[in-house]
Specification:
Helix content is about 45%, strand content about 20%. It is built from eleven helices and 13 strands. The strands form three sheets. A six-stranded mixed sheet has the order 2-1-3-12-4-13. Strands 8-7-9-6-10 form a five-stranded mixed sheet. Helix 2 links the parallel strand 1 and strand 2. Helix 3 runs parallel beside helix 4. The longest helix is centred in the N-terminal third of the chain and has 28 residues. It is globular, with a radius of gyration of 23 Å. The N terminus is likely disordered.
């Protein structure tokens, strides 16, 4: 009887170990897909994404593939339908993904030790207005550019400010002469610098990074409005990603010293993030009717 028991225990242990080995091999054979919003469109950003793919590929047991999507909502849908396991999102798109699929923020970027940034409204340095109030005095003569329609600092936050001032309702209803959506922060900056639009909304971190890179000339633009502090863009994972993988991802970002990655994402480092960090954006989205209150 004892021999039978020992035999059963041995067989069970062998089966468990075999199962663990098969699971590890299966996990290692899968591809871990990551989606990235097109916050910028320049070569530096794309090079940073490629470098990051290499860093994560080395850290995780699975092969890693990162894709920059053509629009913000595509990344949210990728999470919703299980096409990707992790995403780089703006705060607004993160809240949408969390609301729709349960995606969880785990990491965000630091700028000089701070995990915050701002929405700026900028104009050409030669223009006579130095404040948003002055810019809006003859609003019917002004042109204005948002970034992506799904952007936090390029659309949601400045859009709410302009709505509160009674000059903007939505893409079709506004007091401006012209309202446009550039699609990305760098394009907005270029349009303002070249006087294609009178003013535009832009992410403060990317704005400063574009100046440092020489893409924008600091002497050609000026800031006429700044929002309250916003928590930085989160890297978010699907609820299906296991805890061990999440910890490996966190470790990779927290120890990141690849300058190409840091510069491309306008970061000086990374820190952990949680869903609670995005309550301000969630409150705005609830107020604007984009998501339901819990």
């Amino acid at each position: 009887m004892k021999l039978i028991t020992k035999g059963l225990i041995t067989a069970t242990l062998v089966a468990i170990l075999a199962g663990c080995s098969e699971n590890e091999e299966e996990q290692a054979g899968e591809t871990f897909h990551v989606g990235v919003i097109p916050a910028l469109s320049g070569d530096e950003f794309l090079e940073a994404v490629e470098e990051l793919e290499g860093e994560l590929d080395e850290a995780l047991p699975q092969d890693v593939e990162i894709e920059v999507y053509p629009n913000y909502n595509g990344v949210v849908e990728g999470l919703n339908y299980g096409h990707i396991q992790m995403a780089y999102l703006g705060p607004r798109t993160y809240v949408s993904a969390n609301d729709e699929s349960g995606a969880e923020a785990i990491i965000t970027q630091l700028i000089d030790g701070e995990a915050s940034y701002y929405s700026y409204i900028i104009t050409h340095a030669d223009n006579p207005w130095d404040t948003l109030d002055e810019f809006l005095e003859n609003v019917e003569e002004r042109s204005f550019a948002f970034g992506s329609v799904s952007s936090t600092s390029g659309s949601l936050v400045p859009g709410k400010e302009l709505s509160d001032r009674g000059v903007y309702t939505n893409e079709e209803e506004y007091e401006f002469d012209v309202v446009s959506f550039s699609g990305s922060h760098d394009i907005t900056g270029e349009q303002v610098e070249s006087n294609q639009v009178d003013a535009g909304a832009i992410d403060s971190a990317f704005y400063n990074s574009l100046i440092e890179q020489g893409t924008l000339d600091e002497s050609e633009t000026k800031v006429i409005w700044q929002s309250e502090a916003l928590f930085q863009y989160p890297w978010s994972v699907s609820p299906d990603v296991d805890d061990e993988t999440v910890e490996l991802i966190k470790e990779t970002f927290l120890n990141m010293d690849n300058e190409v990655v840091l510069e491309g994402f306008a970061a000086t480092g990374f820190t952990e993030a949680t869903d609670e960090d995005y309550q301000l954006i969630r409150d705005i989205m609830i107020e604007e009717g984009e998501i339901d209150a819990e």
